[in-house]
Amino acid sequence: VNDFEEAQTDAFTLKFEQDVSDNTMFINTARYAKTKQEMLLTSPFNYSTTANTVTRSMHAKWQENEIFTNQSNFTTEIQTGMLLHKISTGIELTKENQLTKNYTAQTAQASNLYNPTSISWDDLSLSGQKSDGETTTVGAYLFDSINIGEKVIFTGGGRFDKYDTTNDVVSSTLVPSTIEDKGHLNSYKAGLVYKPVDNGSVYISRATTQLPPGGANFTLSATTTNANNPDMEPQKSTTDEIGTKWDLLNNRLSLTTAIYKTVVENETMTEADGTTSQNGEKEVKGIEFGIVGDITDKWSMSAGLAKMDTEYTNSTSTNEGLSLRFSPEHTATLWSTYKFTPAINAGAGARYVGSQNAKGSITSTVPDIDSYIVYDAMASYKFNKNLTYQLNVYNLTDEEYVSNVNNSGRRYTPGASRSGLLSLAYKF
Questions:
Q1: What distance lies between CA 285 and its chain's CA centroid?
Q2: How far apart are CA 218 and CA 133, in angstroms?
Q3: What is the pTM of this model?
Q4: Which strand (E) or helix (H) includes residue 164?
Q5: Residues 143, 189: contact at Cβ < 8 Å?
Q6: d(Cα 128, Cα 317) in Å, to the nearest integer?
Q7: Phi, psi dihedral angles at 85 (to 5 degrees)
Q8: I need a labelling partner for 287 at 20 to 30 A (CA). Which of 43, 74, 245, 266 fits?
Q9: For residue 130, which of 160, 167, 80, 84 has the smallest C-alpha distance?
């Protein structure tokens, strides 16, 4: 099999900071990045139990992504009576492009599962089909954090975006076409923090976001029932959150807890009469616990535990009430380090991901993704004030696990096996 994957990323960032006054700062950040990926993957599917054969098909990818973004931001503090305003405002310009080219399709080949024959995809020429999507976005935002005395902080603000998406497509008949969508998006965030004591606080917040047609993959569709059709409304998300934070051990250790609920609206769905609407809705609810900081002068740790429930609350009959795919109900992390001497530091930890529903509404026998736990460790030695050696070992027990599964459930990506990284850091 002549499978391969090649990826290259080039990125440049230029940041300018200027103190306008004692309490006002201007920051301009410009960033350009370009990523190119070429891939050839042989995918097995359609296993025949009678003939013990499996069909192998070619999946190839050629994609190039470019992004340029420039953000100009002002931050300042203004005292108005008993209110202290911490204001952040700015303008952001972003231009993103995704070019995807298709390879010439090749006929799938069947092979005996117990006596497989070699396979080679000889024709890797481009077919001429392509999708060239580009989105230009101009955004402006204003957020204000208002200290009301010493115990209450109110935060609020919004963002306005104007976007223009163009998708040039060359179809299988090599006929070019262009689809365009333009519009605007509004989002906001509001929150309230109350500090009953100096080392503790509770908060409540609400935030909204919007995703326009083609916003996820720069691809627009002329099909009227497709979610990426320009006539579709943007997808809307609303997140409500309540949480608390407490600092212990003379503010060396922080405990956090948060309960949240996210509702996604305006998803396309098929109604009972066969028509397509944007009445689709899904919901994610969860609770998170966290701890981070120093237990002693030498011993530090961070840990997190999360429980998440997901559900299609309004969808087609096959999805209604089901949990969202690839969403583990339980996850947890633990990491701890100990400084044996001023020069020697060591740490260890674990990562746990619970089982995941991979079936969704798929009727074929797609297995769920089993839970797994992975252990990592590190050790560092500070040779002098400038030079530090560090060794990281990942997946100490060489656990075999599934990292993710593709949408059809026929291919999976195995988790990284045991590996090590020796690094050298020099400060000057």
A1: 18
A2: 5
A3: 0.84
A4: strand 152-170
A5: yes
A6: 39
A7: -95, 130
A8: 266
A9: 167
